[in-house]
Amino acid sequence: MEKTQSLHAYIKEELLDRIKSRKYLPGEKIPTELELCKDFDVSRTTVRTALNQLTLEGYLNRIQGKGTFVAEQKVKQALSNTIKRYSDQIAVQGKKGAVTVVDISVVPANDILTQTLEVPLNAPIQRIERVRKADGEPTQYEIAYIPWDVAPGIKESHAATSLYASLADAFQVRIAKTIETIEITLADERTSRHLQCEEDLPCFYMETIAEDADGKKVEFSRSYYRGDKTNFTIERKY
């Protein structure tokens, strides 16, 4: 243990190593708090703090009266250059991906849409609200905005699969570049309802601006990912 590291942080790290090395398998019950106290020679409060943090981060499930179990592996998504659809990224992890379209409507461009999409104020914008799922569990809630003149008349059939693929196939609009910003947020009432989680659950929040080969802004989206169900992989080549 590093000198600057607290006991509960050390225990959390050790337990996380056991989970990621598959010493503790998904769905498996881990040792009790008392057994972990003896294993690490620490107090129950210290063990409980470590377990609470791992539970909050989605690595453990604590079931009242039954014990603590290893959670299913988080859904991995790539932030590097990729042409794979969500369903394809999920499939290689042994999971079944699905997209549920919550709503499609046309709204007038407000100040933020005017700035991000570079359209006139009140220009017609298609607002597409979707939820992505892995094995039936919501992992991502997304609201995408696409100018009407970019792809007029987007239907549910277009949005129920890869939106970028639909833009290319149905509207001959090809995404050449995306700019993505990620930060941490807490699930509010609307987000928690769509992600089927508790309010104030830590979530990844991502804003994306997509451009075509000519640099025209064709989409702006806001996405919320369950922090306990999702992680991201970034690959850089030098």
TrEMBL record:
Keywords: DNA-binding, Transcription, Transcription regulation. Gene3D superfamilies: Chorismate lyase-like (3.40.1410.10), Winged helix-like DNA-binding domain superfamily/Winged helix DNA-binding domain (1.10.10.10). Coiled coil: none annotated. InterPro entries: Bact_HTH_transcr_reg, Chorismate_lyase_/UTRA_dom_sf, Tscrpt_reg_HTH_GntR, UTRA, WH-like_DNA-bd_sf, WH_DNA-bd_sf. SUPFAM superfamilies: Chorismate lyase-like, Winged helix' DNA-binding domain. Residues 5-73 form the HTH gntR-type domain. The keyword Nuclease does not apply. Pfam families: GntR, UTRA. This is GntR family transcriptional regulator.
